[in-house]
Amino acid sequence: MKVLHFIPNDKFTLPYIEFVNDKFNNKSHAFYVIKGENYVKDIVTKDKNIYWFSGGVKNLLTKIVLMNKSEKIILHSLFSKKLLLLLFVQPWLLKKSNWIVWGGDLFSYRESNIIKRIFAMMKKSIVKNIYGISTLVKGDQELVTDLYDTKAKRFMAIYISDERTKQIKEIINRADYFKKKRKKIRVIVGNSATSTNNHLEVFEILKKYKGENIEIVCPLSYGNKEYAEKVIMYGKELFNDKFTYLDSFMTMDDYMEYLSSFDIGIYNNDRQQGLGNIYSMLYLGKKVYMKSGTTMWLEMSRDMSLEVFDIENISHETFDEFAYNDKKIVDWNMGIVRKRYEPLNAISLWTEIFED
């Protein structure tokens, strides 16, 4: 086994494992899935190269042996305290480790709890001495350097799902897809029940349209339940029956169909978050508003030349201006995102991470 992965049990965990096992030699890769939401089912771990990251002396010893035997360790995010501890007590492993930054795992330095601060100090030591850092947007590389004073080698990474790309292509290739006329403008806000989506701020911006033929929807199927309740309460208070929310998980095919039913996506995130949703919306030909100045905004608007819109513009837009989506911009964005999700592009990026 050449490459050992540690990856949270998230929405794109299984698609990523399937991608690696399909495009690379699966005998050279092993995956420790860190338990969380039940995206990766127990039966999946019957595959020979998938393990659960769980407790117990036997499991701990197995992890330690595999970590030391592997040629490369890929850390898909650094949220797990157990994983941080394993790395901290085995600093020699850092010279062959590569941290794939997910966004939220950048900011543990903000923690005030004493235990969390101890783990934040461990993490700072780990990142300072780690060999490689891979980010999903270029701007996060600068953030890592500033926050952790590291000289790690920089890489770019991407998570793709063949199932998602296939479904999007099927949707946009339907003869009537771009000819449908909607009676109301459907707006999707954010990607999860996490405060970094800043839903309430978006509601305040959109409330001037509450008399228009509009529907506002928030995906709240995962994240913080208390925060979700707060979003739901305020959404109903402002928009009444023009507000609704999604609180259940969908299959990838169903979720892409769901996204295709919207006209506009608003992503008011403070940090890199919800990239899969944003790129899917652009690929589906939708109008996307984002918070300017974030690493995601700079990546898309400056580095990729995508036509995305600043949320601040909404405050002085009429409803017709807000709802309008220029076909030239649609075609431009779809062409760029299509190239991003070409399998050869992803294979090239991950090959560099695995082989360097």
Write the layout of secondary structure elements.
Blueprint: E1 3-8, H1 13-23, E2 29-34, E3 50-53, H2 57-69, E4 72-76, H3 81-88, E5 97-101, H4 114-129, E6 132-135, H5 139-148, E7 153-156, H6 162-172, E8 185-189, H7 199-206, E9 214-219, H8 225-239, E10 243-246, H9 252-260, E11 264-267, H10 275-283, E12 287-290, H11 295-303, E13 309-310, H12 319-323, H13 327-340, H14 343-355
Parallel strand pairs: 1-2, 1-4, 2-3, 4-5, 5-6, 6-7, 8-9, 8-11, 9-10, 11-12, 12-13
Helix pairs in contact: 3-4, 6-9, 10-13
Characteristics of this structure?
356 residues; alpha/beta; Rossmann fold; 7-stranded parallel beta sheet; 6-stranded parallel beta sheet; 14 helices; 42% helix; globular
Descriptive report:
This protein is α/β, with parallel strands linked by helices and 356 residues long. The chain folds into 2 domains: 3-160 and 343-355, Glycogen Phosphorylase B (Rossmann fold), CATH 3.40.50.2000; 162-340, Rossmann fold, CATH 3.40.50.2000. Helices cover 42% and strands 17% of the residues. It has 14 helices and 13 strands. It has helices at residues 13-23, 57-69, 81-88, 114-129, 139-148, 162-172, 199-206, 225-239, 252-260, 275-283, 295-303, 319-323, 327-340, 343-355; strands at 3-8, 29-34, 50-53, 72-76, 97-101, 132-135, 153-156, 185-189, 214-219, 243-246, 264-267, 287-290, 309-310. It has a 7-stranded parallel beta sheet, with helices on both faces. A 6-stranded parallel beta sheet has the order 10-9-8-11-12-13, sandwiched between helices. Strand 1 (3-8), helix 1 and strand 2 (29-34) form a beta-alpha-beta unit. Helix 10 crosses helix 13. The longest helix is centred in the middle third of the chain and has 16 residues, at 114-129. The two termini are 16 Å apart.
